[in-house]
UniProtKB/TrEMBL annotation:
It comes from Anaerobacillus alkaliphilus. Residues 1-23 are annotated as: Disordered. This is Accessory Sec system S-layer assembly protein. Residues 1-17 have a biased composition (Basic and acidic residues). InterPro entries: Sec_acc_SLAP, SLAP_dom.
């Protein structure tokens, strides 16, 4: 097991990460108790009963807990302690802090690792029931492990980072267009308006269904096949695509190309459609003169 702290002679431990606090209502999905007249809440150190620590580690956690800023009533917070690399993975140690007047237990929760500019470096669903019951007005240290597949960047700072709760994004009532930032910047106002009209005319997919509709297909001069699909999410939950195998058929029903794509965790928000372009290299194109008067693309065996 990795040590909790890097031992530097003569140096006191310090909080290497920042604080991230949210209303307990956003996480617990229940009404909170009426707040007391206090404006600030100090949290006491609470160690998990199964943890066996040295006196030195207990002192360090106690010292760092005292360094944490006070919370407002009815908040949950993550206060970063340190990050230690273990091969390709990272162990993030942080205080889980509870300013409520009652003990709480948490379930499966999505946490994100952010840099000092709030850029997402990693994301993972954690089983926070393992934390046990967190007493009222307390701070419990815990280890959160981000594996290589959870990380979106290998540039993990030693200080200034933040561990945060990922709050659910409100799902739009009407099925809408969702553009990636790069598309938002690249497309003209006329192109955006046209895409919005296409999405509106198509209507929403069936509830809970994710499907693909071809928007544009062309063979480049180098022999590459470029297709643009509308990825339509009929679920209320965000869909995250890491890898996507695709087969393309033309109007004759012939397979034009097939291959797999790594998407770097492409996210499609609930009840939205996102356009995305896929490029098949020449060696994956199996028909020289496809008929794209009608065509479709789909995951194989679907």
């Amino acid at each position: 097991m990795l040590p909790f702290f890097k031992k530097n002679d003569g140096e006191k431990p310090k909080l290497e990460g920042a604080e991230s606090a949210v209303s307990s209502e956003d996480i617990l999905s229940e009404e909170v108790m009426e707040a007391s007249d206090e404006t600030d809440v100090e949290t006491e150190l609470s160690l998990h009963p199964a943890w066996t620590l040295t006196k030195e580690d207990i002192y360090s956690f106690q010292f760092l807990n005292n360094e944490c800023p006070p919370l407002k009533p009815n908040q949950l917070s993550l206060s970063g302690i340190n990050i230690i690399q273990d091969g390709d993975d990272y162990r993030v140690t942080a205080f889980v802090r509870n300013s409520l007047e009652k003990a709480i237990s948490l379930g499966d929760t999505t946490l994100v690792l952010l840099n000092e500019n709030d850029k997402v470096l990693g994301r993972r669903v954690f089983q926070l029931a393992e934390l046990g019951e967190i007493p009222a007005r307390s701070s419990r240290p815990w280890n959160f492990y981000f594996t290589k597949k959870d990380l979106l960047s290998t540039n993990i700072p030693a200080e200034g980072w933040k561990l945060a709760f990922l709050l659910e994004t409100p799902v739009p009532e009407k099925h809408t267009l969702d553009l990636e930032d790069s598309w938002e910047k690249a497309l003209s106002s006329a192109n955006k308006k046209q895409l919005k009209k296409i999405v509106e005319d198509l209507g929403a997919p069936k509830e809970g269904e994710v499907n693909f509709i071809g928007l544009q297909a062309k063979v480049a001069t180098e022999g590459e096949l470029q297709i643009t699909l509308l990825i339509r999410n009929g679920s209320k939950k965000e869909v995250q695509l890491e890898e996507l195998p695709l087969v393309v058929e033309d109007a004759a029903g012939d397979i034009v190309a097939s291959g797999g794509f790594k998407l770097d965790n492409l996210k499609v928000k609930g009840n939205t459609t996102k356009p995305w372009t896929f490029i098949f290299p020449k060696e994956q194109v199996t028909k020289a003169t496809p008929d794209f008067s009608r065509w479709k693309a789909y995951p194989p065996n679907k």
